[in-house]
Protein 1
Amino acid sequence: MERTYLMVKPDGVQRGLIGEIVGRLERKGLTLIGAKLMLVTEEQAKRHYAEHEGKDFYDRLMTFITSGPVFAMAWQGDQAVAAARQIIGKTNGLEAAPGTIRGDYALHTNYNLIHGSDSAESAERELGIFFQESELVGYDKTI
Ligand code: CMP
């Protein structure tokens, strides 16, 4: 069983897309094991996007991700990282396939609605930035 970190970004929250996004992930069969509406601190943003430091879009990204509430989520399931990334679609909304979240709702790379971990290793690192382990509720489905 794999876990992944997903985050509806400020644009997705303000456009009222939390429910739509959660519904798509649930219908795929992934299991929500933690979620909260929160403001990302500067320290969390720096840790989360450390790999992009120095890139031309870094400052814009930091300003954006701390600009309003995000909906932080932990999901689990078989190959949860790959499954979520398939549902999310490519980074650039114009390149993302129709039927994916970004393909259906995003026009821009900067405002692309949702973040999804790119590997199981990144997922565990990112979950640790945004969640205490005690906030996550791992369980096996019984129905
Ligand atoms: P995300 O999956 O959150 O990871 C890094 C984010 O940087 C990415 O989504 C985009 O929103 C943003 N970004 C802006 N410009 C670029 C770019 N040229 N390449 C990759 N990511 C970019």
Protein 2
Amino acid sequence: MSRSVLVTGGNRGIGLAIARSLAEAGDTVAYTYRSGEPPAELADLGCLAVRCDITDPEQVEQAYKEIEEKQGAVQVLVANAGVNRDQLLLRMSEEDFATVVDTNLTGTFRVVKRASRGMLRARSGRIVLISSVVGLLGSAGQVNYAASKAGLVGFARSVSRELGSRSITCNVIAPGFVDTDMTRALSDEQRGAIVKQIPLARYAAPEEIAATVRFLASDDAAYITGAVIPVDGGLGMGH
Ligand code: NDP
């Protein structure tokens, strides 16, 4: 059965792979994009592109109104949009810390809060948050990013406890290194050093994260909530 899906940050990288994968599986998919033009391949799949910056509560509200009007209340939410502003602690500006937390953590709060309204009414729903291996492992130069991604774990587990009795699940995926614009910014030397730490000795393809999202959003995952699922090639083993 086709469900009303929203993927934030669906115009590129992991979010694009998630939107494509759910649309190909038969869901009715809306996705947010913040800048540029929506990708043609998602238009070809019939996905609805909604411009929205998740740091602006007004834009989030407008996006939900448009989605509800065009495809009904969101039944599956994938909170994927995120940024990094890497810098060592001593040199990190207040602004870089705040921007990353406001996007990755507070932005997720905004979209989950708004989605929960319709899900509570429907007494069902699936929420998947895209965190990172770095949230649990830590990473030099990423105190802002790691704090925001670790925050998603406590957030998801609290949401699970609040909404579980209405058959709404909330889970976290913690990807390792995925081949997207975010990691393409690293130098070849940095990439080489990272790959040495990964038991599976390679980066993930965005589609490998999308496959786990598809599972968590499926009927087969109805009894999974408050979980943190690593998709990291073994990088965070033990965390
Ligand atoms: P990209 O940088 O390729 O894409 C990020 C997406 O988030 C873009 O669609 C971007 O929109 C959107 N976005 C950023 N800020 C905002 C905002 N304020 N409002 C709305 N949308 C916004 O990243 P990835 O695809 O690599 O990452 C996707 C998610 O996965 C992120 O949460 C990231 O932290 C996480 N992740 C990534 C890993 C990796 O190795 N790549 C590893 C672990 C986790 P726009 O195009 O307008 O900038």
Protein 3
Amino acid sequence: MKSYQTNNPAATQALAKQLAQLAYPGLVVTLQGDLGAGKTTFTQGLARALDITSRVKSPTFNILNTYEEGRIPLYHFDAYRLEFAGAEDQGFEDYLGTDGVTLIEWPQYMADLLPNDRLEMTFTRMGTGESDRQITVQGLGQAQAVEEALTDGSGK
Ligand code: ADP
Ligand code: MG
């Protein structure tokens, strides 16, 4: 597990840029954290670093937005609305661990679909500042190498 502290959106996006440089087709990244924690901000930074020029916003209503114009396809899920609906039988598997990098907000609502090889990230408001965030990264299976390649965080 690596842990980072950021105190502005740009610092969170700098971490996203690092991840974009390590991303490969098939990488799945789960983004956990409360509303406003910074999950979409992180995704926007990653998209930009993949040379995606479209405006990335949270796909709350359609669950999944796809961006094909960058270096690698980006599949961006926001599973929040699946809390009661469930994630089965909607073809989401086609976007997990295939030809793109997949980022998933609210992954707990599609837990049954998550591959074992994945990078788990958590975003937490912390400290006294309005903009202070703790971000943790843990690689599982093949994604362990991605965690290891990231710069060392604060070590906590
Ligand atoms: P989420 O997708 O987790 O609901 P968003 O990324 O949509 O969160 O919103 C995060 C908000 O917090 C944005 O308005 C962003 O500018 C702000 N913010 C302040 N500090 C940070 C930080 N350190 N990292 C990320 N976002 C931050
Ligand atoms: Mg969001």
Protein 4
Amino acid sequence: ATPTALMVGTGRGAQLGILIRGPEVLESTRRVDTVVLDKTGTVTTGRMKLQQVYVVDGAAEKDVLRLAGALEHASEHPIAQAIAVGAQERTGDLPAVEHFANVPGRGVRGHVDGHEVTVGRFLEVLPDELARAKSAAEAEGRTAVVVARDGVALGVLTVADAIKETSAEAVRELRALGLTPVLLTGDNRAVAQAVARAVGIDSADVMAEVLPEDKVDVVKRLQSEGRTVAMVGDGVNDAAALATADLGLAMGTGTDAAIEASDLTLVRGDLRVAADAIRLSRRTLATIK
Ligand code: ADP
Ligand code: MG
């Protein structure tokens, strides 16, 4: 590949809304056969909204919302922001939190009024009524988190996130280029399958409930199977996987950590541009050969 032709490809990339770390990046896109897509913020908008509140007998909806809102107020996760904003709208001022801790891939914990409160996925077993509400929401693609006090479940909150309008078309375009799309997420299996179905990813190619530190292992495993892997992500928890993939693509709307770990940045956060990037590099390299 001559440097001049690669520079031309780089310039064309900028016009398409693709920032390329260096011209040599285009070379590695050529052999890519698998595209791993993060769910939240990549396939979906990541702008979540609080939907339903389910509480156990004896617990008040307002109290459960205040506890959850207070903890989530201190976290930057899209789920957290939805809950903090929703709780504030519905209940007003939120109580103070002590000993706050963010537990990646699980949720948040801290003390409110002297009790330990958790929000997220910490409990293995739930009372029947909450378990049913949670499964029903997840089957429809909503994310459900459990609010517990001193280890006792008080309620379930559901948040929903819209699938980007361009995601289904992007998946079609990636397939047309001969690539296999894989969905990777820390979210629940049922939620992930509902999103995969909506955008056209095979159910066998959905990897759900993957902890942030394990996302990189999914990429390594695919590579050890002989695949050449592109990864598209937006979050801090995607950074290691983006850096390990043969080609890392960050959403320009995502976190700095994701952008810094990537070879390419899709400026507008439109997944269709991932297909443009691969098409562009193939064309650039074909011109050179
Ligand atoms: P993704 O891979 O889709 O970006 P994460 O790895 O960030 O998702 O989170 C995985 C799961 O952990 C979420 O679906 C949720 O159940 C739980 N979780 C993470 N952060 C929080 C939080 N701040 N509050 C409640 N639950 C959380
Ligand atoms: Mg994400």
